[in-house]
Automatic annotation (TrEMBL):
The keyword Oxidoreductase applies. It comes from the Bacteria. One of its GO terms (molecular function) is oxidoreductase activity. The keyword Oxidoreductase applies. The lineage of its organism: Bacteria, Bacillati, Actinomycetota, Actinomycetes, Mycobacteriales. Keywords: Oxidoreductase. Coiled coil: none annotated. InterPro entries: NAD(P)-bd_dom_sf, Sc_DH/Rdtase_CS, SDR_fam. This is Putative oxidoreductase. Belongs to the short-chain dehydrogenases/reductases (SDR) family.
Length: 277
């Protein structure tokens, strides 16, 4: 294994989830001192253990990214205990299935608060530190393939992820002269705790068959697939890459984003959602 991050400090948000965890472990394995954050510190026990088992220095951080004060305090504690942050994987997010007509306003606001405002909070505070320290840095934002391809029953999720992509592009443009690079990753359907209820539930076989039929490489993604891309973009090997959105989806978006649910649009004034496509 390489040591691309020796001497660097990394922050991973949403690190209790599968993608955040896999990325944190990969960074720790490659020499980074890693701060792992999630909304509740106790959710991070497994991630902390895995990072330590990989030989890494790790700091667990209970931090609600929708709370600006908590973000400022949390990131200050990382700098105090591990050193200035060199790399950030802004990964924390929220998604919930609902039709546009029936989604409660509070769910819409939750998508905006977590996915957009929360990510803005973390990225801005980290970037301010990078600029102040004049060390440069790298930021990767998890924007999801939903940022470029609509998925029915996930309108709020896709809208906020599309906004994240544009946020990252703006950051890349403005932070370039401070030698801070910013890119987004666009994961397709990845086998995680978030997708498990759909893939193993009553319609799991139908969902899986439909998704696989729309995935040219013939399998769904693993968290390590995303971690490999993220760590590359955070490393000096990607020193000339910024403002880009890179898909890691096994080709799923070639034909449009795979659908969890579909309906027959030929029938006027009727909605009958069924699993798959």
């Amino acid at each position: 294994m390489t040591t691309r991050f020796t001497g660097k400090t990394a922050l991973v948000t949403g690190a209790a989830g599968d993608i955040g965890q896999a990325t944190a472990v990969r960074l720790a394995t490659e020499g980074a001192a890693v701060a792992v954050a999630d909304r509740k510190e106790e959710l991070l026990d497994e991630t902390v253990w895995l990072c330590k088992d990989a030989g890494g220095v790790v700091l667990a951080l209970g931090m609600d990214q929708t709370d600006r004060s908590a973000v400022e305090e949390g990131i200050a504690s990382v700098a105090d205990r591990l050193g200035p942050i060199d790399t950030l994987f802004a990964n924390a997010g929220y998604g919930k299935f609902a039709t546009f007509l029936e989604q409660p306003a509070k769910e819409w606001l939750r998508h905006v608060d977590v996915n957009l405002t929360g990510t803005f909070n973390v990225c801005q505070v980290v970037a301010q530190g990078m600029v102040e320290n004049k060390r440069g840095g790298a930021i990767v934002v998890n924007a999801s393939s939903g940022a470029t391809q609509h998925t029915d029953l996930l309108t709020a999720y896709c809208a906020t992820k599309a906004a994240l992509r544009m946020l990252a592009i703006g950051m890349a443009s403005e932070l370039g002269n401070h030698r801070v690079r910013v890119n987004t990753v666009l994961p397709g359907v990845i086998e995680t705790g978030m997708t498990s209820p759909m893939l193993s539930g009553p319609d799991g076989d139908v969902h899986r068959a439909a998704l696989l039929s729309d995935t040219p490489v013939g399998r769904l993604g693993e968290p390590t697939d995303v971690a490999s891309l993220v760590t590359f973009l955070l490393s000096d090997e990607a020193a000339f890459i910024t403002g880009e959105s890179v898909a890691v989806d096994g080709g799923q978006t070639i034909l449009g984003h795979p659908r969890w649910y579909s309906t027959d649009h030929r029938k006027s004034h009727e909605e009958f959602w069924k699993a798959g496509r």
